[in-house]
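Task card 7
Instruction: Convert sequence to structure tokens.
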Amino acid sequence: MFRFGSILALLCIFLSCARSGAESSAVPVRPGPRPVAVLQAGEYPLWFQLTDTGPALLDSIEDARFSAALIPWPLALHIRFILAGGDGLVMAVNRGGFMGLSPWDDGGDGGIGLYYVSGGEFWRRYTVGALLVFEEKPAALLYRDDRFLDSAASLPQPRTWTFSLESSVPVRLDIPALDPFPPEEGWDADTLRLAPDGFWYYRVLKQDEVQPEIRQLRTADLRRPGETVSIGTFQNSALPEPLSAAPAPLRELLDAAGGNAALVISPDFPQPRSFAGSGESGPGFLAYYRSGTADGAPALAAAVLPDGRGMYLSATAEPRPFSLPPLPDSFVYTGIGFAAGVLFAFWEEQEEFNIGAAGFMVIQMADLKNF
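Output:
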């Protein structure tokens, strides 16, 4: 298990805001390394939409309709990747920056701190290619995407970023495995992922050459250079793991839900993992999993479909269905996570490869308080 949750825990000592009642609420506080709001989750959802200046609270999810143009996903503002660690979540916002959710407690009822570290104009020029943990810090990889629009931006330099208590903007974090391919020599890096075989796979490319050059590499340690692999080996590294490799509670949950595949976020995984069964396909779920903890908390799992229909499982109970609040037409849920027992569900307005409005929903569901 990785430990970037300690970064979020340290951020919480800067808070000074009181709880505002039993219903859902979002209390603004000073931005920067402090949270932009303290969330008090209740039975009614809080809806947030991503904007160029950070997450904005909506009166209703209906307010997000027609509020943003549909554009190709590499160019759109949306939550691109999510990591779970400890009792919090960290996200990379495409064309935006870092967002974090972490428990806050002033000795009273507490709440969830919502953090946003904007990358400003620099991040708005690039696409997020990966979010991972490197040397116990969350690291985002940026690259220049020219598939849908010719970009006048230079290659991102630096290309990998993290955040810290000492800065209100993202800070540079070098990954040595990428050093042999510097941006100043025309190299971009658009992919970095951990495969089931334990290797980190990444792709670097030179697009400004008369004959563009692409290399696929892998390394067991991101502090060391990688070795070249074939395109087939690289592509296979992105395939889902067999469902038999998933933790037993997840397999039981998917079996009860009639699912045959899932993309899973977990504090037990260094990156999201995808699992799929063989044979006849079933619906693909968005899932969250937490193993049993040292203090006796049971293993828990929850999974939802993009339309919000879901099921959860505790080690002490049978699988039970639940349903997230409904979304407007052409909107879908794209992931779920938990912080201090509070459910966060991420959503997007989608049309083929295009994304319009995007954001997240916060709710305290009675059935899911054990998380």
